[in-house]
Amino acid sequence: MQRLREDVTCSICLDVLNDPVSIECGHNFCRGCLAAHWSGVSAQGYQCPECRVPCSSDRMVPDTRLRALVEKITEPLWEEMEPQGPGAQPEPGRPVQLVRLDEAGNLTLDEEALSRCLEQRGVGDAPVCLVSIVGEQRRGKSFLMNCLLRRLQSPEAEDASWMCREDQALGGFECRNGKATVTRGVWMWDQPLWVQAQGRRVAVFLVDTEGSLDLKRRMETSIKLSVFSTLLSSYWIFNISNTFTRMEADYLEMFIHVAKEVGETCNLPPIQRLDLLVRDWQLSGAYGVDGGQEYLKDITRDLEASAEQPLVLGALRASGTRCYLLPHPGIGFTRSRAVTPGDMDEDFRQYLCDYVTSVVHSAGTHIRTDRAGQALTGAQLVARIKSVSQDLKTKRYDFSSPLKMAESFANSRAVEAARRDYEQFVQKQDRDHQGMWSCLKVKPEEMQQCLERECKELLERCRGELRGEDPQKQAALEELKKELDRQMTQFLSAYEHRFKVKEAKRLGLCIGGGALAVVGAGVGAGIGFGVAAAVVAVEEAVAIGVGVGGGSIIGGGVGSKAGAWLGEKFAWIKRGSNPPGQGEEGEDGAGCSDQEPLLRGGT
Q: Which residue of 15, 420, 504, 602 lies most exposed, with the fewest beta carbons within 10 A?
């Protein structure tokens, strides 16, 4: 099974092929992975990620036979996810902290916990939906998460029975009344909650995020927290208290700005699904989705008049955005320490049940996708999140404001695009000159000038794309130049070696051809190839001289030994020293006396 899995693995994401397509050279990839790989190609054209053969971007042919094979191989994984035995229940699960926040405001991703959630129990090969709630702290986000959790764990319930007893608190994520913040960082329920949607099984995860609308916290920390929140979301619920105010609009503008930059960097759409959930609504008697859609129209009109939050306005106009109004839960609920269903007012409970049920029923259709609309598996999403986390550790990003963050991300993308274009340019030179020896017509110094011109052009292009202040731009350009110089030096070293070998072969064949007319085929060929290889090393001179000269019938012995002997002489000349036994003035010592047995041995 493992060998078969390797045969259906995409070489880009290193995961089982998802919607496999075949290209002109015969290699197969996930459609989404190939589209993402080609999305940033340069003017050099589209190439196969494996063999680098030029391809047409519009000739990605669906491979139905390979798709069927993938389904047969991955089918046992679904069986592993099912509870074993009649009446068996899945593991209860627990919340795990994925992102920790220290006192200094630094965020740390727990990569092991992330992998346990999104790469095990069959999730690594399955599409995933991540439901997260964002908004102001201490406004019942964790309580709502527990409602969603209980509803997902009771898929057959048709009424409010999924809430269990009225005197029993909803368990799951830590939740309690009071002013103190309970949730810190980003938490996720570690067990997948499977739903069926559009003929496939989808792993739903609930993500509980620390309240980000905190005026006491540094903007840098809020932005970093928003980066991970956007990565871990395909279904956003923006939790609002009473009304949609200027503060909520400003925060949502910042959040969408972050999501947009992260999406461009990771090939992810900024927003897939957005709900505005207005809690404690008291301005009218209309609740639920009908009242919410009317309020959404009011919000949109106000934003159009102010023209101050264009990103929010665009998000609220999207067809997938909706607004839902919840009434106040009642005095008994707000004063309760245990937060039980029995403490809720009846109308609040009814609307809450309707909203939670609607989210659960539609969760399977809001899976995480890339910008091309291709579904991402748990493993593919993990790879993107880890990549961003590593960048945050190793690169200098300015998160003092959304604008600064956008500049930092944009500069990083510009530098990476230039680096990738230069790498492709160098690879093209390598392909053009690594075949037949006769193809090496460009001298090393001319090749260096060619690479330097390309380097200069890319640096100038990148300079024009960089954003922000000059010191920031200069630092990015210096980092890019170091990387391009490293690539150039590495390529020129190998190219110069191949060029010298080619020139040596040509010189050797000329000498061998002259000798062939005088002393015969075996002697000429042996001498010629012995001299050629000598330019590289003594060992190669002896080996080639003996091999070629000895292969001839006439004069084989003479050619082999003479070629090897001349090869040694040329090698020592190339190194700028004398062979063993030869004096400084060119007088032959032991080396001269060796010539007679060499010649005698060939007669």
A: 420
